[in-house]
Amino acid sequence: MQILDQAVEMIRKQGANGASLAAKLEAIAACGDQAARVWQGYLDNPGVSGDKYTIVSWIGAERAKQLYALSLEAHALAKDVCAAAGKRARFLVLDESPISLAYRGLKDGETGTQAAQVLLAEQQATNKHLRALADKVRAIKPVAKAMKKPAAKKAAPKKKVAARKPAAKKKTKKAAKKK
138 with 19: CB under 8 angstroms? Predict the structure, then answer.
């Protein structure tokens, strides 16, 4: 979640109003809560064991799809938070998901339930961190930009300018004299 940390820091430095951004961070954490319930649902009722290679074979395709859909939703919200950081955030690329997905391999000797316990703990830690970021954004005091009214312009004394004759008139007079 380093990207969101950086975005929040940029927003804090700008002194932007953080109410809507805090709501988006809370929405990401809510997606994380749903993902934690999916992981907990698997741990409560693990079903048949899967193969020794992937977590998906243990938790099932339906749960993996639910986690992926939550990840897409959270990813869009995270992009909004990064975009709110302004032009300075154009380098921020969200390459990590705030949702613990089921698309990683199992380590040697690890079971799907052990991996699910680790991923559930990671998800809960991420949710806690997201809520801390939301609190940090809420605490930002908006910077009041001083609006100066333009000073009334004093009327400069008018200078008398000698009346000039347009060049076109001079040419016509010279042409008339020649004839």
Answer: yes
